Amino acid sequence: MRSLREPRSTTLETVGWATALGLLFFGLGVVSERTTFAPYHSAAIWLPSGLTLAVLVRVERRHWGILLAALFLAELAKVLVLGGVLPMALTWAAANCLRALLGAVLVCSWAAGPVRLHHVREVAGLILFGGLLGPLVSATLGAASMVLWLEGAAPFSIEWLAWFLADSLGSLLLAPLLLTWWPLPREFARPRCLGELAIVLGAVVAVSHFVLGGSVRWAFPYLPFPLLVWAALWLGPAGTAAAVAALTTITLGDTVAGHGPFSGAPVSSEAQLLATQAYLAVMGLSANAFAALVAERRATARVHRFFADVGALLAESLDVRRTLSLIAERVVPDMATGFAAWVAQEDGRLVQVAEMGVGPELHPVLAAQLTPPLQRWVDPSGRIILVPLQGREKPVGALVLVGEERLRPLRARERYLAEELARRCALAVENAWLFERSEQAVHARDEFIAIAAHELRTPLTALNLRLGTLLRSLGPRPVVESVRRKLQLAVKQVARLSRLVDSLLDIGRIHSGRLQLAREPVRLDELVRTTTERFREQFERAGCTLLLRLEDDVLGEWDRLRIEQVLTNLLSNAVKFGAGRPLEVEVSQAGSRALLRVRDHGVGMDAQALSRVFGRFEQAVSPREYGGLGLGLYLAKEIVEAHGGQLHATSRPGEGATFTVELPALPGVAPSPGGPRFSEQAAEGTA
Fold first, then answer.
1. Coil, helix or strand for 269?
2. 3-state secondary structure string, 9-41?
3. SS3 of 646, please?
4. In whole angstroms, what is the distance from residue 100 CA to residue 78 CA?
5. What is the pLDDT of residues 237-279, one digit of tens each?
6. Distances from the Cα of 505 to the Cα of 149, 510, 515, 632, 646, angstroms
7. Which of 35-44, 379-388, 423-432, 543-552 has the lowest mean pLDDT?
8. Geometric angle at alpha carbon 81, from 79 and 83, rounded to 5°
9. Per-residue pLDDT averaged across 495-500, rounded?
10. Counting Cβ atoms within 10 Å, is residue 122 exposed (0-12), middle (13-18) or buried (19+)?
11. How far is 74 from 19, CA to CA, in rounded Å?
12. DSSP string, 345-369
């Protein structure tokens, strides 16, 4: 059913809608006349009052004039057809139009949005304005005209009360049905929900007829109320309104037929009428209010779950395009029928990164709003809202929510959702920008380090060659012994500087994924002996005693030079922090893993230092006291992990540290009958 609020509706279509409304008004008026209680001339429930209120609340105000004219003519024709005089017909028609106009104006102003009875405020507005204030006008004019021009009319007060209650019930019982079912709720477009509705309605009809339609005067007319509560909990406001309509139909039919607790002697006609109307009012109002309360709580819970899901999505990824696309899937169709998002580029251009449910006919409208300066914008129909993604200094994008149709514009809840979602997305976009810029800075730093290392390596290599040439040219002459020592010291410092440059180059290779491994069969015990032999002079200078405990034939497919680099870094670290104390190096094999342990008995580390000792440029102690760049252990860990192994450490302050390297091993030589073969070697250092 297309809405009258669509701008393309023509005058002819509007006249067609007005004609259909007038005919429906006339038909419901005739049906309502069948619910009169003699000798009163007012129906127990005046269905046209609910029809007119619901229609005016739904359509745009620019169409109210022609619709009210159709209602006036329909009421005039109905009264004249049923035998009323012209003055009374004119008064009744005016009374019904004024009631509908007053109720619609007040309800729309109170709700400040589309009335779908999903909020307690909307139900309260319908009760107060549509059910109480609006019928005051029609009841006063209608009862006065009946006293003046209708022969056999009851006193004014009685006719006024009957008219007022009839109009009030029509607004309170039929209007909720139309407001919740026009247009068709999304959930009831599914066969399963329609089946559930049929079950509920069947139960309401059966229980209501059992209580109100039998010859026995049941003392429990409110027995159907639990079924209305069931409908409110299970099917929401639309299902509740349908259940109330079913209850109303059974109640009026059985009572007019003389069945149930509200009819029959010795109950007077006035008492029957008032009791029936009071019963329907209590049942309908209670059920609809409870359904609105349930819907409101569920909507609030759904919004909370939505923002929890959005928070998780924004936290798990810095890919803005992917994240906003996933958010679009959360928004549509539960919160809105359309979602789109744009992100600003460095040059200020807005690039769309997500879209779902936004028709191409809206693109020109949105493009006109996506121009600097970005501002919050709501289209006149309330269907579209655009909210800037406001960053700390400037907008970083925009998002759009689109309502389903003009009969369901975005309410305050959806607008709040859009603004809160924009705030969180703006924070995520800025975080993504900051992360990208930090990545660019890190990349630039690594590029600088790599270039600087390459540039430094060339003169260092030349300087090392020249110093070596000078040392060889001096020969064994005693006169130049002091020069020889100075040259040897210079060679060592150049070698140290070369190792630092090589470490910086390795950092760049590891970070860019260009670290190459030249694997070959390697015996770990032999590699340890060769490497520690080169450290003999350093052990002696540091006053460290080296204890080797090496298991023979521990084999693996490793890069020999890289594993030597790992051991060199571990030994350098042990000599630095364990000077003057014993050092232990152990090689063993446990299953398919080769184990290399380097232990010192130096200063040790606490738990906090241990957690960051393998970080890049991290040191467990003050670099001013021990020197170094904090790269050795980081490089060692990266090299071991590149081989598929692990490097971990244990330590306590003052008790030294143990570094354990685990590497994938090859099957070695079969062990001797006495178990694995170990060789031990101790070298005494001098302080």
1. helix
2. CCHHHHHHHHHHHHHHHHHHHHHHHCCECCCCC
3. strand
4. 17
5. 999 999 999 999 999 888 878 787 777 656 677 777 888 888 9
6. 107, 9, 10, 13, 22
7. 35-44
8. 70
9. 68
10. buried
11. 9
12. -TTS-EEEEEEES--GGGHHHHHHH
Secondary structure tally for the chain: helices H, strands E: 21, 13
Q: Which residue has the tokens 């390795």?
A: 506
Is residue 41 predicted with pLDDT exceeding 80? no
Q: Name the helix (H) or strand (E) containing 520.
A: strand 519-523
Which of 496, 516, 618, 636 is CA-nearest to residue 564?
A: 636
DSSP 424-470: HHHHHHHHHHHHHHHHHHHHHHHHHHHHHHHHHHHHHHHHHHHHHHH
pLDDT digits (tens, 9 = 90+) for 275-285: 888 899 999 99
**β-pair partners for 399:** 341, 387
pLDDT of res. 6:
41
**Sequence-separated (6 or more) residues with CB below 8 Å from residue 110:** 121, 124, 125, 128, 129
Virtual torsion, Cα 606, 611, 616, 620, nearest 10 deg? 0
CA 408, distance to chain mean position in Å, is: 23
Residue 447: what pLDDT? Answer: 67
Token representation of residue 197: 């509705």
User: Beta strands 377-378 and 350-356: pairing type?
Assistant: unpaired
Task: Give pLDDT tens digits for 70-104.
Answer: 999 999 998 888 788 999 999 999 999 999 999 99
Please state, in angstroms and rounded to a whole number, the distance separating the CA atoms of residues 663 and 669.
17
Nearest partner of 570 among 660, 504, 664, judged by Cα: 660
pTM: predicted TM-score of the whole model, two decimal places:
0.64
- Secondary structure of 376-400 in the HEC alphabet? CEECCCCCEEEEEEECCCCEEEEEE
Q: Parallel, antiparallel, or unpaired for β 678-683 and 395-402? A: unpaired
With tokens 């590497």, the residue in question is 663
Q: Do the Cβ atoms of 141 and 94 come closer than 8 Å?
A: yes
Please count the CA atoms within 13 angstroms of the CA of 124 that sit on its side-chain side. 7
Q: Which two tokens stand for residue 219?
A: 């003392």
Opening angle at CA 58, ends 56 and 61, nearest 5: 55
Which of 340-349, 368-377, 435-444, 540-549 has the least mean pLDDT?
A: 435-444
Strand duo 519-523 + 593-600: pairing: unpaired
Question: Tokens in use for 613?
Answer: 């000792």
The H or E element spanning position 675 is none
Q: Which amino acid, residue 49?
A: S
The one-character DSSP state at 112 is T
Query: Is residue 120 classed exposed, middle or buried when 0-12, 13-18 and 19+ CB atoms within 10 A define those classes?
Result: middle
d(CA 474, CA 490): 15
Beta strands in 72-228 (DSSP E): none
User: Rg of the chain's alpha carbons, rounded to an integer?
Assistant: 44
